[in-house]
Amino acid sequence: MSVDSVKSGPVIWLTGCMHGDEVTGIVTIQEVFKVIRRQCLLCGAVYAFPLMNPIGFETGSRNITLSREDLNRSFPGNKDGSLAERIADKILATIRQTNPTLVLDLHNDWMKSIPYTLIDPYPNSGHKQAYQTAMIIAGKSGFPVVMETDDVTSSLSYSLLQQGIPALTIELGESYVVNENNVKRGVTSVLGILEHFGIIEATNGAVSSQASNAQDQKPFRFSFGPVSSASGIIRFLAKPGDVVKKGQAVAKIYNTFGKLQDTVRCDADGIVLGHSDSSVAYPGAPVMSFGIV
Ligand SMILES: [Zn+2]
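Above: query sequence and zinc ion SMILES. Below: predicted holo structure tokens.
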């Protein structure tokens, strides 16, 4: 999909459904395009791949079902490689051809999770400016900004940063089903970013207020926190979006007969980003994810 202006300017890419079960990005992109098609761009262009993993989408699965590969662990890709590597190569090459200013990759997280913006680790390849731009734009997304702590070097956003192209990931709440509220927040966030680049007129007060709310917050660091040390059933004591303190009990794990097996406590101050899709606990199972201070 694309909309462009006769006047040259910034080129923004929106990408969705890299993971087949993460469907909110598709609808968010559709809604953004409805708005920008109505009002004509002041300059530049907006491009989108709303559905990057159609095979995963049709089967409701994260990975490319045929080859079981994670597309977002297959970048920068290889035109002679595996199925996922060939798709990744095509996506990256198409984006690069347009000389992009910014790429926003839209994802979803656990079923119970809040929207947040995820920034990759610094690629350490001399592309400080691209990284700084990504940080600035993350601050304008209107969502809590979380620094990725895992070394995931084969994602789309990391591959773009490595090539000097600003990129970030926006996690828009739960997978599998479209949450209309998160679509609205995603659309507001993207339009706010397009306003920032002067691509569309600043028309919506909500856009700037959502963006300025989170702009001054310091970024959090991503953490799965303490994992479960026992088997049993999890009862969650905190919910996504809660501000939590170091040492606070956030979940309890009981055995079949109701006897307490483990109390999961935060190991740092922060916010709860989400909790696991299942209440089944086993030793080593992640229970919650946090943005820690
Ligand atoms: Zn994803």
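The CA atoms of residues 34 and 255 lie 51 Å apart.
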